[in-house]
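Agenda item 2: magnesium ion complex prediction
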Amino acid sequence: MNALEIPLDLRLPKPTARKLAEHGFATVGELLDLAPRRYDHWGALTRMSSLREGQDVTILAEVISQRIIPNRSRKGVRLEVGLTDGTDVMTAIFFATNEYRLAPHLRQLVPGASVLFAGKVGSYRGALQLTHPQFESTEGQSEDEIRERQKRPIPIYPASAKLNSWTIARAVTMVLDALDDADVPDPVPSEVRSRHGLPTHARALRLLHYPADDTEHRVARAALAWQEAFVLQSGLVAAHVGASGERAPACEVVGNTVLAGLLDTLPFALTDSQEQALSEIRSDLEQTRPMQRLLQGDVGSGKTVVALAAMCQVIGAGHQAALLAPTEILAEQHAESLRGLLTPMAARGIDVQLRLLTGSSHAPVRREVDLALRSGDPLIVVGTHALLQDAVSFGDLGLVVVDEQHRFGVAQRDRLRRPSGEATDGEKLTGSRVPHQLVMTATPIPRTVAMTVFGDLDETRLIGLPPGRTPVETFLVDSANGVWMQRLWARAREEVDSGGRVYVVCPRIDEADSVADAEEDEPGILLGVDDVGARSGAAAHVAQGPPLANVQSVAEYLRTRSPLAGLGIHELHGRMTAVDKSRVMDDFAAGRAPVVVATTVVEVGVDVPDASMMVILDAQQFGLSQLHQLRGRVGRSQRPSVCMAVHRHELSDWSIKRLDAFVSTTDGFDLADEDLKLRREGDVLGADQSGRTSGLRFLSVQRDEAVIREAREEATVLVEADPTLRAHPDLAAAVRQRAGSDLVWMERS
Ligand code: ADP
Ligand code: MG
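Presented output:
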């Protein structure tokens, strides 16, 4: 019997079990998985100066006074209890119809007692106050119990008004008392555990919830982080070694006329780096072991042609290939540039079929593409997530190329690898056919994140840019400086007059737009643009300063009152239809409207060689990688280009650091490392699509690189010896469970 699967109502009084169930805890395991947020100590009182009005808090305070006061206006009495942390004071207040009802309070809240209080911090006449807080004293416990208890750290759980920390703590204690350690499954095999000096899972849970001292809960957390990394890596390694018997089609190079035709007709010579990437991919695709390769290359480094060569190899071998882009604009651009590269081949009689499929493709087009895909005939399909929808099934998918992977969570990634229509249940995959996979990103993924989320993706980097590029000069401009702002728009005019194009990027669409422009093809995934990483923080930021720049007002200003007045100025944002968006981009590329005021829809991949100036307004709102992506939209030809990051006068330290990093280098890899250092955990591993925070529980990609590596090595040894995990049922179960809760890495910039 798995002790963690025992329902809580077999272990706890019914009302407690019911209350916990309402909060999503139905089993012993679910409750024990709830980690304390922090540990307090009897004798170490909670600092009151850190409390803020409106917070739900659990604090440890010493009672200094108690006073019963009759109510003047109403019937009844109130009890005022003075509390201190040794420095500051506050009051706890209780109302009652008569004094007798307050007897338990009077008995327990006596001067000198240390008491845990939980409640919402309010204020009364400028002083902080807890009204009707719940409290927990040592009343009714024996001397020994008290002494024993006072030595221990007090776990403080994430609590709500309806379920306070010590109710959880009591339930946890009861559950632990009844727990049979032998029945707690242990995903980490005992040899591995002893090699790394880790306690058993059961022991780690006990140390986490009922530590004798501060060392114990630290040991527990470290062990649970290790275990988490190990489960994660075991799953990834198992998938990677093809343990499930996954096979992809082997695509021969010899005699591949399509691949040869492409390479013969390319309008430029490949860079060494591109050649190198291609040769790695070429040999991957010749194997039946599914390729899982990450192609990292800075913006403009020329990843597309590498992807096309890979797709041609697959097409030439008689299979289908799909290229997925995060936005419709980008999918269209890809389709167009691929067509451009395929045209000279057609002239030689090598006809490669290419289809575009996006969310706004009309039904007849969809049907036609769907039929073509089902037929299994070799063709390239370029599209957005629409491709991921069940409606599309591939007859013979040999390769999936995912562009700008940072926009895709692991769940989607895995979904694509499944042969169409098949369940994602790992067990059903035995022996099944899957496509090769090439993942491309211009936002370098820090090594630990890549390992954590993608496991063993083979990695290829495109170093440097194709010849003929000029580095983009970047400047910071304080928006409060009117002279500089004038100069900036004058400069924009000069760019246009000399044949250049100007992007102006804003964080908002219009004045009413309080949230960011949601990424068009990506319902559910937050793409925050605020600089603090937390939406509430951004809201506060905006409330204080002037409103954030928005596309509508900025376009209006530029058309009427700036040196750009009289020029064609278009707006571009995610609320426009795909048709309108592509018309805007056409006009922009052709110079009919040489200025585009846009949201971050221009962020990824958009390629207009004449674009020479990027103006980012309220640049403090954007993340580093997002800024870098935006800057990558210019500098795409020999024309010298500039990027102007316009920011508000008032900046947080954090914003200053980020903007400084942004101007200091144009190297995407350097920026990615800097970014990881500056980010907070929650920004790296985001919430899943249901809005539930998912991802890592104990593990930190910022702190635990060594742990991830160690766990990976152990997982590799174990999985290679036992690919189906037959000898490790606990681990297999944990891996399956983990696969169900999707870990999402997203670019929350
Ligand atoms: P990214 O890596 O950002 O996706 P692209 O693949 O869009 O970059 O390439 C940027 C531009 O560089 C495209 O216009 C492409 O045609 C061009 N390009 C790619 N490789 C080379 C090369 N070896 N020599 C010259 N131009 C190249
Ligand atoms: Mg690209």
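Discussion summary: The chain has a mean pLDDT of 82.
Owner for follow-up: CH.
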